[in-house]
Structure formats: structure tokens, C-alpha cells
Amino acid sequence: MKQCYLCGEKLIKNTNKTKDHVPPDCIFPQDKPPNLITVPCCKRCNEKYEQIDERMRNYFAILAGDRSVRVGQIARREVLRSRKWREIFLSFTKEHPTLVDNGGNPRLIFYFDDNELNPWLIRIVKGLYYKLYQTIIGDTAIFKVEKYPQYIPQPSATYQMEKGLEFRPYFVYGVLKELNNDFWVLIFYDHLMFSVSVDKSVK
Ligand SMILES: [Zn+2]
Question: Lower CB count within 10 Å: N or C terminus of the chain?
């Protein structure tokens, strides 16, 4: 029987069973890729994340928007046309003139509330893990999130659309697996790079 990739609850059709997109489907443009990743999820966990998904998408699209035509479209459509988001963005840039570094690359240092960002990234790793291994990461695992504000991506043309890169430029993922330690890399909009290490050795 399938279980929720987040809380492990057993899922029963027509009662608590839903599916969740990994990463959340709002990350993608309106004409979404046909092969988005989904995992089984209970109703309760699924509903918990709707607002934060959009907020993260908005942050990411603003930070990356000027550097990719396709991502810029998302930023303009979803974010900058909204007066509220435009004001939030302008006040951020006023308060933080170091929003981008000398090379024009986004700095992620100030922007995120780690209490919000970290669980959000960990959730994506849990989803990818479930998709790959058909099992959930145990409760005792310890997660560690890192940001890479200096990351400079390679030009798109040099990448093949192999596994983990098929949603480029919107989302890229990869994992280095060791016995009890997995090291996941997540890149959003080709410019926002994070890693999540998962220590499963703790019992
Ligand atoms: Zn759940």
C-alpha cells in the first residue's frame, strides 16, 4: 500500500490519497513540461504547503528572472505584475543594495527565512527520494541545508537533458549516494543552488 512521502500515513483511495508535485508545479511556466514528477501524499500534508510554494517561487523568480528569458517570463507574469510583490521586491533592493554581486549573480544570504526555506527544500528531497527508492526517509534522519550564493551556472547548451536535468532551466537535481549519507543538489532557475545532506546513520 502506498504511503504519504512526508508523514508516512497509509493512503486509501477516495479518502486521504492525493499526489504532490516534486518540485511544486508552480515552479514551472504555464505550459508545463508533460513529465513532471509526482509522489503519493496525504491530504493534510498536501494542503499545508500551498502558500509557501508560491512564495518560494516568487523569491526564486525575482532573484533569477533577469538572467534567463524563460524564467524572466515567470517573474514578470507572476511577480512583478502584482503591485504587492513589486513593492516587496523594491523595498528589498533598497534595503539590500548587495542583492546581486559584481558579476550580477544573486546573493541568497539575506533573502530567505531559513525556518521556511529549509523545510521546503527538505520536502523536495523527500519527494525525490520516494520517487527513486519507493520508500520514505526515516524520522531519525538529520538534514543539513546549504546555500551557494556564488554559484555561476554553465551555459544551457552544454547540458544534455539527462536524468536530473530534464526540467532545466526551471529545476535541476542530482544525488551523490553513500552508505548512510546522501548529498542532494537542487538548482532552481539555473541560478539558485542549494544542497541538502541527509544523514541516515542515526538510529
Ligand atoms: Zn502526510
Answer: C
- Inter-axis angle of helices 50-64 and 114-133, to 10 degrees? 100
Residue 124 · residue 186 · CB < 8 Å? yes
Q: What is the pTM of this model?
A: 0.85
Q: What is the pLDDT of residues 120-157, one digit of tens each?
A: 999 999 999 999 999 999 889 999 999 987 777 776 55
| Separation of alpha carbons 142 and 147, rounded Å | 17
Distance 78 CA to ligand 1 centre (A): 28
Distance from Cα 137 to the centre of ligand 1, integer Å? 13
Give 136 Cα–ligand 1 centroid separation in angstroms. Answer: 11
Q: Please say whether the beta carbons of 40 and 126 come within 8 A.
A: no
